[in-house]
DNA sequence: CGTAGCTGCTTACCT
DNA sequence: ACAGGTAAGCAGCTACGC
């Protein structure tokens, strides 16, 4: 089948594959009806900020976040309404419910695990078909459906604990489960009409279509299917989302960094800079501090506020008007400080504060109840962003350094401690930081925001998650979504390890898990007329061409055992295309065969060229990280045989290159991983 | 007692 | 909390010679 034929009927194809899903849907619909009858679903109106439902209002927008609304017992989406430039909360109307999968059949559960059926949140048992990639066979599973996520897991008496050892996919957070099943792509445009959610398909011009068609003519159907899906992510327009950056200043003695958890000192300034041109400078009136002279560079009027309470209240009012709020270290400082200051020192009730904190083992996150909060410090701190996207351009992640790197402008230099500045100086200093923070997302035609949206689409993560999490979470989410979309069981780490085992090679470095790349000892001296050769994205290419994936390496089929991987006892499947090889290969091909040349195409407009550059950049980050995660326990689909197969094939390629050079009498004066320096 | 040589640890850089 | 490989600095230990 050609791509063209294929693209003409993607919807039909999908429907066929989704028959099973339709059955679930009907089932779930019944469930919801039942629940409604039981009056267990009581929507509380005041919690919903303009629900998009009741009056059949229609809406077009970009999905930015997904979550679970406990009071309404439904999944919800935050959608950025393109018309009003506001966030709309949309509650699920499909009746999707939380569930886990069990390898026990319905009668087994009924007879031997009757406590599951007696669980107060239990809803229904349903037999479904799944495919087990590791054993390469279809299996029947029981879907154990519950009315709320906590009945599945998270409590001592949750259903997953009753089915311990026989339950699957029970650790996936419900809102993720919902997004996977509905195949919701965060960052993509959707339409809501009659309270139903539908994706808006991007228009791809005929010339682009034929160009791409030629490139991928010889690929298999499953490749084309995935191609069709991913192409949409790159060709859907990205809106410039309305947003505001803010910064606070806190009184401090002797220039000590204040403790945001205690928030003992006064907040003396809060400033804002928005994409709509808004600039606000709120400073606290202090009897012992002069107002001072107006600073000519300051583009906003100073607003002196009489009390700290008023200052914070006004700040909350401003934040409310923007769908996205930007901060630099807001998770650990600014928003956290305001939160604790308001509640512990200024007598605010929790309900009056639009901020709430969540604590994970790694770090704290400050959430806004009605907006998306991006902490740019965390985003720029991400190693993949720092190294892969920006080639280590900034040495540390301070606002000053990052600002200087991208905006050629750092923070305002101060000669006095903050607490001693006159109000005008204080306001100017604080506003400048807000402006810098905003500019970090607007420079170069909104490069950073566009990059964030593209990465959201590829990884299917929400804006808040993508900007805070590392690449192992990004790739985990991408692969989980792809498993669900194909009705593949998501294997847990123990299952992969049990079937695939440990690494077989020994690392050069003590404490490492397997052998890595070859580095040719440099020949000392000054060399002239040196030629450098290297492989283009070696590891991702290996993963694609050798069909490497957790299920294809050391597969079950006897006939594949002949297909040996050099330098290892491993072999690789000849019958099935590996899921990892498929996705990584596709992303690599799109980058190398199409977008890379587009980014340099002089025939197209500068803006278009720029967009293609950002697309190549986003692909590069994902591709570069893909090999690494296979060797990392932090990645739940990690598989050491896959990781060591990748490096072993890489070593083989470079060694054979070296040997060929020796045959030809060319001296290899240096080489590292994927390159040779020749003289 | 002084020191060569080892190990372990860290940090920075390479792909 | 994406991987391994190389190089260098430093502290602390041990074996060995005087």
Q: Count the helices. How many?
A: 23
* Count of β-strands: 21
Top-tier CATH class of the largest domain: Alpha Beta
Give the total of domains. Answer: 3
CATH architecture identity of the largest domain: 2-Layer Sandwich
What's the CATH topology name of the largest domain?
Nucleotidyltransferase, domain 5
The average pLDDT value, as a whole number, equals: 91
**Residue share in helix:** 40-55%
CATH homologous superfamily identity of the largest domain: Ribonuclease H-like superfamily/Ribonuclease H
Structural class: alpha+beta
Residue runs with pLDDT of under 50 for 5 or more positions? 9-50
- Multimer state: single chain
Major beta sheet summary: 6 strands, mixed
What is the strand arrangement across the widest sheet? 13-12-11-10-14-17
- How much is the radius of gyration in Å? 28 Å
- CA distance, first residue to last residue: 48 Å
Principal-axes geometry comes out as: globular
Strand coverage percent: 15-25%
Structure description:
- This protein is α+β, with helices and mostly antiparallel strands.
- It has three domains: 43-199, DNA Polymerase, Chain A, domain 1, CATH 3.30.342.10; 243-459, 2-Layer Sandwich (Nucleotidyltransferase, domain 5); 491-678, Alpha-Beta Complex (Palm domain of DNA polymerase), CATH 3.90.1600.
- Helix content is 41%, strand content 18%.
- The protein is built from 23 helices and 21 strands.
- The strands form five sheets. A six-stranded mixed β-sheet has the order 13-12-11-10-14-17, with helices on both faces.
- The longest helix is centred in the middle third of the chain and has 37 residues, at 423-459.
- It is globular, with a radius of gyration of 28 Å.
- It starts with a helix and ends with a strand.
- The structure holds a DNA duplex (15 and 18 nucleotides).
């Amino acid at each position: 089948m050609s791509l063209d034929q294929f693209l003409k009927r993607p919807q039909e194809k999908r429907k066929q594959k989704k028959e099973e899903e339709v059955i679930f849907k009907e089932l779930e619909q019944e469930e919801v009806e039942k629940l409604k009858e039981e009056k267990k679903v009581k929507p509380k109106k005041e919690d919903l900020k303009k629900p998009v439902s009741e009056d059949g209002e229609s809406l077009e927008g970009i999905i930015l976040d997904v979550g679970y609304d406990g009071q309404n017992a439904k999944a919800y989406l935050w959608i950025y309404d393109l018309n009003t430039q506001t966030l709309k909360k949309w509650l699920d109307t499909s009746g999707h419910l939380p569930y886990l999968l069990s390898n026990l059949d319905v009668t087994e559960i009924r007879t031997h695990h009757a406590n599951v059926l007696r669980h107060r949140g239990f809803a229904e048992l349903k037999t479904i078909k799944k495919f087990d990639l590791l054993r390469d066979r279809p299996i029947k599973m029981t879907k154990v459906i519950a009315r709320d996520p906590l009945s599945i897991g998270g409590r001592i008496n949750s259903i997953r604990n009753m089915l311990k050892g026989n339950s699957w996919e029970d650790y996936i957070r419900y809102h993720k489960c919902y997004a996977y099943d509905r195949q919701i792509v965060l960052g993509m445009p959707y339409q809501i009409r009659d309270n139903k959610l539908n994706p808006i398909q991007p228009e791809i011009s005929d010339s682009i279509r034929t160009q791409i068609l030629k490139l991928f003519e010889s690929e298999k159907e499953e490749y084309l299917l995935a191609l069709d899906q991913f192409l949409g992510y790159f060709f859907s327009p990205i809106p410039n989302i309305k947003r505001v950056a803010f910064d606070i200043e806190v009184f401090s003695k002797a220039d000590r960094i204040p403790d945001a958890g205690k928030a003992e000192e006064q907040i003396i300034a809060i400033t804002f800079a928005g994409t709509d041109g808004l600039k606000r400078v709120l400073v606290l009136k202090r009897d012992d501090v002069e107002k001072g002279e107006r600073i000519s560079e300051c583009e906003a009027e100073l607003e002196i506020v009489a009390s700290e309470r008023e200052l914070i209240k006004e700040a909350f009012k401003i934040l409310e008007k923007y769908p996205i709020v930007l901060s630099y270290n807001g998770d650990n400082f600014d928003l956290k400080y305001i939160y604790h200051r308001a509640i512990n020192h200024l007598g605010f009730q929790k309900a009056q504060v639009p901020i709430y904190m969540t604590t994970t083992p790694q770090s704290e996150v400050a959430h806004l109840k009605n907006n998306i909060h991006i902490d740019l410090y965390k985003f720029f701190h991400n190693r993949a962003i720092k190294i892969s996207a920006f080639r280590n351009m900034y040495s540390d992640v301070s606002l000053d350094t990052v600002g200087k790197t991208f905006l050629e402008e750092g923070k305002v230099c101060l000669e006095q401690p903050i607490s001693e500045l006159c109000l005008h100086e204080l306001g100017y200093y604080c506003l400048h930081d807000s402006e810098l923070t905003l500019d970090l997302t607007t420079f170069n035609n909104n490069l950073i925001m566009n990059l964030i949206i593209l990465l959201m689409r590829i990884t299917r993560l929400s804006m808040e998650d993508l900007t805070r999490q590392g690449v192992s979470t990004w790739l985990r989410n991408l692969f989980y979504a792809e498993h669900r979309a194909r009705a593949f069981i998501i294997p847990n780490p123990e299952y992969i390890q049990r079937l695939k085992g440990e690494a077989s090679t020994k690392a050069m470095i003590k404490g490492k898990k397997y052998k890595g790349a070859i580095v040719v000892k440099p020949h000392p001296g000054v060399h002239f007329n040196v030629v450098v050769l290297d492989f283009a994205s070696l590891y991702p290419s290996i993963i694609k061409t050798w069909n490497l994936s957790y299920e294809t390496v050391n597969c079950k089929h006897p006939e594949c055992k002949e297909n040996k991987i050099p330098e290892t006892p491993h072999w690789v499947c000849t019958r099935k295309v590996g899921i990892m090889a498929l996705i990584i290969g596709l992303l690599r091909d799109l980058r190398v065969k199409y977008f890379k040349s587009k980014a340099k195409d002089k025939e197209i407009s500068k803006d278009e060229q720029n967009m293609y550059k950002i697309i190549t950049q986003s692909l590069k980050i994902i591709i570069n990280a893909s090999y690494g995660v296979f060797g990392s326990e932090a990645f739940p689909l990690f598989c050491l045989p896959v990781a060591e197969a990748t490096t072993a094939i890489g070593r083989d390629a470079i060694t054979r290159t070296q040997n060929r050079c020796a045959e030809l009498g060319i001296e290899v004066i240096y080489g590292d991983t994927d390159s040779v320096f020749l003289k």
